[in-house]
């Protein structure tokens, strides 16, 4: 897993687009979460505000929890290992200790119970115990942060599935959450490597036998129904369906018929669904970025997007580059990437070169808790 992976320039652009797309979707949707504001006739803007009183361009818990996974992936780690999972667990806690303005109930319950210095084993056990007690751990909180797993395992789809499920299980025991993470990461991997959107049905075969019929039916549904019908979308399955429905909708339209680039049109459509807008847009944004690349993300978004831990768009690009190539990073890009050691295994494409399932699954943001609790929601 520590070999440098040879990627073409366009593949690296798409790998960077995964994290940028997720972060921009998150920051764009933040202002409209659970109907706090309504997009105007020109579509959503990076207005900030929302339930966490975010600054314009500031990302929320979705990207703040994605960031630790990307950091560990950027160290060339195999995300299935205890060391890697422990590092992610510790970093989740560091973020949580900072008093984030927005955190899901499932995630906060696990972090509260796992202690101040959690290991992956502790978090996974606590998450399982919570599920056994409540029967509910299928919120969208692990899917929203899963995208870096795809970058860490571009050359190893079987390892990707295992890693996605292990990282998901740190907080979400429900098998549907792990399956959704694995399926979404397989799709992202396909888009980064090939430059085309995946047929998710072709990837479902990598899931357990008893999950395949379930997901085939859900993907069919997502492609047949209006994206606007996938609300509420706090449940991981509905969130994935909402994101896939908008991605497919923009992909199936000739670009010349869209008012905006497909990345912008897709995120606008994701936020227009409503409910958990930042999370659905973050999930969709990862796939849109994987297909169209970092260069398709509007510069006006890249300039302003930022968030915990005091990072900006260029930091996401740096981590994405490192995670995807297991190479020297953006400062060596592109000439040094993949130039000196055996290639990875990207054949044939490699080149030289919240109650869960509802808004009530979310903890009221700390900074706005009294205001939120006073509202009917
Ligand atoms: Mg959020």
From TrEMBL:
The family database entries (InterPro entries) matched by this protein are listed as:
ADP-ribosylglycohydrolase, Ribosyl_crysJ1, Ribosyl_crysJ1_sf
Q: Where does Mg(2+) bind?
A: 60-62, 276, 278-279
Q: Where is the composition biased (Low complexity)?
A: 334-353
- Tell me the segments the record calls region Disordered: 330-377
Record's superkingdom? Bacteria
Q: GO molecular function terms here?
A: hydrolase activity; metal ion binding
Q: Which cofactor does it need?
A: Mg(2+)
Which Pfam family, any one, appears in the UniProt record? ADP_ribosyl_GH
Ordered alphabetically, the record's keywords are: Hydrolase, Magnesium, Metal-binding
Comment on bound cofactor? Binds 2 magnesium ions per subunit.
Which PANTHER family does this UniProt record tie to the protein?
A: ADP-RIBOSYLGLYCOHYDROLASE, ADP-RIBOSYLHYDROLASE ARH3
Per the similarity annotation, which family is this?
Belongs to the ADP-ribosylglycohydrolase family.
What name does the UniProt record give this protein? ADP-ribosylglycohydrolase
Species in which this protein is naturally found? Nocardioides thalensis
- Could you read off the lineage of the organism from its UniProt record? Bacteria, Bacillati, Actinomycetota, Actinomycetes, Propionibacteriales
